[in-house]
Structure formats: structure tokens, C-alpha cells
Amino acid sequence: MSAATNEIKIIKSQLVSYLQNMSKIFVVLFNTQTNLTVLLQLIIQNWTRNCDIKLGWIDDFDKIVFKYVQYFAKFFQLLKILKGHEHCISSVKYSPCGCKIVSSSHDKTVRVWDVASGEQIQICKGHTGYVCSAEFSPDGNTIVSGSWDKTIRLWNVELGTELMKLDGCSSLVLDVCFSSNGKNIVSSLYNHIIWLWDVTYGKGIQKLSGHSSSVRSVQYSPDDQKIVSASHDKTIALWDVNTGERTIRIWDVESGNQLKVLEGHSDSVLDMKYFPDGQTIASCSYDGTIPLWDVKSGKKINGLETRGSCAYCVDISPNGSMITAGFANNIICIWG
């Protein structure tokens, strides 16, 4: 065995030991809201004390420090609390540019917020029942919302005015979603039905039936050719937009197999979102926690401060730098 190979093995062994020793320290530091710069300094100081780093290995050491910077980027601090809603928050979504947030609430309103200032910049009124879902169009100029008043409404973002009302729904609207081209909307209803709508003409164009209980959420695939739905019948279904047929019930799109079980919540999970890099998931639950999960390992890597209330919904900014959540106590929080 060459001296270089032996040195690498020693370094790897030291690094594993170092990580094990530091893991408990990190938990304490994060719980005390220690400054990120201090954390990085501790990492470097502790590592250099315990490992005799030679000059020729500095490049590799820099790579390790860089990986720690990426890791700590997942530890978010509370930046803003948005107040204005008069009832619990049912959904929060970032705009495509990440500079705005749209929220819906059981106070029957849809509101638009400026992320930088935390100020409410628009309120959309017109629904006569709980608003369960709202999101921006792909161009960021329009909002779609769905309500227990059995209507879907389109709103002008800048003016807050109603552009169109789709009132052909036969039941409470639980979720709405734009297609990626902005031409269509998919909605899920309490009576187990999924409806597709043409935005230009405001007409229902397709009805999807097959779930045996209310459909909690729906979303288009990136190519707009399929729709995925989640129902209280305990299934996730994939639908072909062109034929309206339910092709498979899925967990993993390619294999149909369950890949990971993320264990840690002590009550029903209400919402979850991937980070843009696909490596981390944020979730919220009736247990009042908002943990972050490492997708590869299935382990919880951090949790967000929840101010003693239950978060009903969560979303990640397009660049992955911020998290927002809507709470039962009428507030919206932003972490970054």
C-alpha cells in the first residue's frame, strides 16, 4: 500500500470520527440559534485541532468546508411574520419570480404579499366560502383560487380584481392548479371528481372520475400530459390528460414502488414540498412541527420554529433560499 493511499484512509477515518463527535454539538448549537459564521469557524478550528492537515491536502479540505456551507444552508432562521388574515391559512404559494406570495384562507379572501418587505400588497375578495387553494399563473400575472362556495375564480394580481368566475363545480373545491402553459386549470372536488378547465373560455373540458373519496390535491406534470391526484381514499392516482384514463396508482412514477418512509411526525401530515434541487423535503403536520428531510437518507436534518401553532401548508421559493408556511393562528411565516 502506498503512503498516499494510507494517508487517505487515515484522513477518511479521522473525518468519520470527527463528524460523529460534532453531530451532538451541532444539535445544541442550532437549538441556541448560534450565528452561521460562528458555526463554520468552530468546524474549521475543531477539524484542524484534531487532524494534522498537510499543505498538499488543503484543496480537499476546502471542498469539505464547502460541503458544510451547503449543509448549513438548510438551517433556516425566521425572517418575517405576515399578519392580515382573520382565519387560518389554507395555502401559500410563491410567485414564479419568488418575489411574491399568494395565500388563501378560511376568512374567504386571497391575499398577495411582498416577500422583501413582508407587506400585504393585494387582497382579493369575492368568495362566499372558505378559500382552500390559490396559486399564481406561470407568468405571475393571474391568480386562480378554489373555494367551498363551489366556484373557481381568476384574479388580476396587480389590481386584485376578479377576471372570471367558473361556477360549474358540483361540490366544494379543495385544490386548483394551472398547467405549465397557463391555458388550463385542474381542480379537485369534495365529491371525488376532478375537473379540467379551459382558461380562455372559462369552460369545463374534461371530467375525471375514479377516486372513492374527496380529492385533496391535484397537480399537472411538467409536460402537461398527466395529472397526479391525492385522495382521502388513501390513493395517489396518475391520469392521462388526453384520454381521461387513470393509468396507475403510484408512489414512485417509474417503478410504482415506495422508496422511503419519512418517520418522525406524530400526527397527520398536511403538506409537503420538494426543494428545487430535489435533495430536501419540507413537511408540516397536525403535530405542530415543520421538519426538513434529507431525501437520500430519509432522515430529518432540521426543524423550523413554529411559534406554538400548527402549520397547514408549506412552500419553497423557486431558488430554494426561503420557506413559507401558513398557520392555524392566521399568520404566515417566512424563513431564510
UniProtKB/TrEMBL annotation:
GO terms for cellular component: transferase complex. SMART domains: WD40 (SM00320). It holds the Pfam family WD40. SUPFAM superfamilies: WD40 repeat-like. CDD domains: WD40 (cd00200). Keywords: Repeat, WD repeat. The keyword Repeat applies. Gene3D superfamilies: YVTN repeat-like/Quinoprotein amine dehydrogenase. WD repeats lie at residues 82-123, 124-165, 166-207, 208-249, 262-303. This is G-protein beta WD-40 repeats containing protein.
